[in-house]
Amino acid sequence: MATQCPRLSPTPVLSYCDSGASGNKSDHHQNTNSALHISQRWMPQCSGRLLALHANAGAQKKVGRLERTAAKVGVSSEWQQMLSWPLNVASTADMKGRSSSGGPYITSDKGLGMSRTIFFEVEILDSKTKEQLCFLDKVEPHSSVGDIKSLFHKSYPKWYPARQSLRLDPKGKALRDDDVLQNLPVGTSAILYFRDLGPQLGWTMVFLVEYIGPLLIYLLFYIRVPYIYNHKYTFTSSSHQVVNLACACHSFHYIKRLFETIFVHRFSNGTMPLRAILKNCAYYWGFAAWLAYYINHPLYTPPSYGETQVNYALIIFVLCEAGNFSIHWSLNSLKCEGTKCRRFPNPSKNPFTWLFFFVSCPNYTYEVGAWVGLSIMTQCVPVALFTFVGFIQMSIWAKGKHKTYNREFKDYPNLRMSILPFIL
Amino acid sequence: MASGEEDGTVEEKETNNKKRTKGAIATAWLTFYNIAMTAGWLVLAVAMARYYLQKGTHKGLYKNIARTLKFFQTFALLEVGHCAIGIVRTSVIVTGVQVCSRIFMVWFITNSIRQIQNEESVILFVVVWTITEITRYSFYTFNLLNHLPYFIKWARYNLFIVMYPLGVIGELLTIHAALPYVRRSGMYSLRLPNKYNVSFDYYYFLIIVMLSYIPLFPQLFFHMLRQRRRVLHGEIVVEKDE
C-alpha cells in the first residue's frame, strides 16, 4: 500500500507531500511544517492560517453537505462515513502536521476502489493589473466557486463574496457560484481573474428601499407639505373624493408590495450593485413624486365621466391587486430553488390563477391592469405614462421568462403568451 | 447522408448569397446617402460663405440658409434607422442622442424663436456643425469606397477635439439667449387646470436640457476620444462595462 504522495505542482511550495522534493525522508510532520513555512514566505497574504481555515471550514461544510446528500439519497451510515472520510482526515490534521495515516491531505486506497484525490491550486489575479492577489493551494476539487470566494474574502475582508466576480478569462463571462472547480476547463492549477463589482445589496433590502420611497413621498404630497403648492393650500385637503380614494389605492399598492417582499417572496441569494439600485430608486421615487404632484394639486380636475368612471376603475384596480397577490402566492408555493424550478406554474382552484391558462406571467398582467385602473380613476397623464413605461419593462421581463419556460419544460402549453392573452 | 450535406451547403450558399446581395444593396444605399449629405453640407457652407462675403454681416444669414439646414439636418434621422437595422455598426443610443439634440436645436429653438436667429452663437454652432458634418460624411463615403485618404481620417478624428466643445458652447449660449423670450410668450407650455391633469413648462424644460449637457457631453466626448485612440493609435482600450 503505497503512500507515495503525488507531486501536486512543480513548485516546491506545494509538493510538501513528496518526500523527494524536500529531500527529507523523515516523517510527514516535518515535511508539512517546512512546506507550510515555505508557503507562508511565498504568499504573505494567504497565510498558513488560511490553509488551516480552509481545511477545517471547507471540510466541515463539505462534511455536512455530503452527509446530508447521502442521507437524502438513502445511503447507509457506514457509507456516509466512507464518503466523508477524506475530509475527516483533512480536518483532523492540525497545523503541526501530526497525522494518523500517511499525510494529512492525501487519501490512501482503503481497498474500496477510491481513487486518490488530487488537490487543486487556485491563483487569483486582478483582471486589470494581472497582479497576484491570492494563492490558494490544497483546494478540494469539488469545491465550488462560491467556496473560493469565501476563502478570498478571508484575505480581503472588504470584498465579500457577493461583490466578487471571478472569471477564467479577463474578458470572459463571470463564473457562477455553484460551478464546481473540477468541472471547469482548467488543469489542477487554476488561474482566476478577479473583478470588484462594487457594493451590493441583497434583493430584500433592494425592494424595501425601492417601495418605501413612493409610499412616503405620495403621502407627503397628499397632506400637502409646505413649499410644494401655493402656501395657502399647505396642509389642506382636497375637496374631491377621488383624490382620497387615489391616495388609498396608491398606498395600498405599495404596502401590499412591502408585505409581499417581507413575507411572501423567496429570493435567491443574488444581489444588486449599488449603482443599479440608485438608478431604480431615482426612477420609482421620481415618478411617484411627479404623479403625486398632479393628483394632489389644488387645481386637480376630477375625471370627465364622474362617479361612474371612478367606480369602474376602482373595481378594475381591486380585482387586479387581488389577482396579483394570488399569483405571487401561487408562485411562492412552487418550491423553487433559486432560479431553478421543478415545475412551471399552473392554474389552481383560485379563479385569479386561471389567467395562467393564457399567459406565462399573469402577475405582470395584473400589475399593468392595476395601474390602468388607477390611470382611469385619476385621469392623469403622468399616471398613464408610468403605466406605459412599466408595461414596456414588464413585457421585456415576461418575454424573457416565457422563453425560459419554453426552453426548460418540454410540455409547456402552447396557448400561453407571455403577458397579454393572445396578443403578446 | 450526401444529399443531406448537399442540402446544407445549398442552403448555406443561398443565405450567403442573400447576405451578399443585402450587403451590396446596403453599401450602395449608404454610399448614396453619404455622398448626398456631404454635398448638402457643402452647399450650406458655400451659401454661408457667399452671404457673408456679399453682405459683410451675419445678420439675416440664418434666415437665408434656414431651409437647407433644416432639410439636411432632419434627413440625418435616417442614420438612427441605419444603426437600428444593423447596416451601420454604431450604438443606436449614441447616434440617437446626437441626432435628437441636433433636431431639437434646429426645430425647437432656432426655428421657433425668431428673436434669437441673429445671435452670434447661432452662427458659431452652424459653422461648427457644417465643418464637422462635411468631414464626417466624406469620411464615411471614402470608407465605403475603400479609398480613404489619410488627411480625411486625420480630420475626422482630430477636428472634433476643437469642434465639439465649440459647438456645445454655441448651443448652450443660444438656449440661454432664448430663455427670456420663452418665458414671456409661454410657448409650448400647458398650464393647470386641464382635464388631463398634467402641465408642461417649456422654460423649465429648457433649463433641464441645459443641465443635461453636463453629464451627456463628457460621455459623448470621451467616447469619441476612445474611438480616436483605437483608430489612430491602434490601442486596445478596455471599455468599462456595467
TrEMBL record, chain A:
Record carries keyword Transmembrane: yes
Main location: endoplasmic reticulum
Pathway info: Lipid metabolism; fatty acid biosynthesis
EC annotation from Swiss-Prot or TrEMBL: 1.3.1.93
Keyword Oxidoreductase set for record: yes
Any Pfam family matching the protein: TECR_N
Gene3D superfamilies membership: Phosphatidylinositol 3-kinase Catalytic Subunit, Chain A, domain 1
Domain TECR-like N-terminal: residue ranges: 120-196
Subcellular location: Endoplasmic reticulum membrane
Family: Belongs to the steroid 5-alpha reductase family.
Protein's name according to its UniProt entry: very-long-chain enoyl-CoA reductase
From TrEMBL, chain B:
EC number from the UniProt entry: 4.2.1.134
Sequence intervals crossing the membrane: 32-53, 122-145, 157-182, 202-222
Primary residence: endoplasmic reticulum
Subcellular location: Endoplasmic reticulum membrane; Membrane
Keywords, comma-separated and alphabetical: Endoplasmic reticulum, Fatty acid biosynthesis, Fatty acid metabolism, Lipid biosynthesis, Lipid metabolism, Lyase, Membrane, Transmembrane, Transmembrane helix
Membrane topology: Multi-pass membrane protein
InterPro entries referenced in this protein's UniProt entry, alphabetically: Tyr_Pase-like_PTPLA (IPR007482)
Gene Ontology MF terms: very-long-chain (3R)-3-hydroxyacyl-CoA dehydratase activity
UniProt catalytic activity: (3R)-hydroxyhexadecanoyl-CoA = (2E)-hexadecenoyl-CoA + H2O; a very-long-chain (3R)-3-hydroxyacyl-CoA = a very-long-chain (2E)-enoyl-CoA + H2O
Gene Ontology cellular-component terms listed: endoplasmic reticulum membrane
A Pfam family recorded for this sequence: PTPLA
UniProt KW Transmembrane keyword: yes
Pathway named in the protein's UniProt entry: Lipid metabolism; fatty acid biosynthesis
GO biological process terms, semicolon-separated: fatty acid elongation; sphingolipid biosynthetic process; very long-chain fatty acid biosynthetic process
Superkingdom to which the source organism belongs: Eukaryota
Family: Belongs to the very long-chain fatty acids dehydratase HACD family.
Function: Catalyzes the third of the four reactions of the long-chain fatty acids elongation cycle. This endoplasmic reticulum-bound enzymatic process, allows the addition of two carbons to the chain of long- and very long-chain fatty acids/VLCFAs per cycle. This enzyme catalyzes the dehydration of the 3-hydroxyacyl-CoA intermediate into trans-2,3-enoyl-CoA, within each cycle of fatty acid elongation. Thereby, it participates to the production of VLCFAs of different chain lengths that are involved in multiple biological processes as precursors of membrane lipids and lipid mediators.
Record's protein name: Very-long-chain (3R)-3-hydroxyacyl-CoA dehydratase
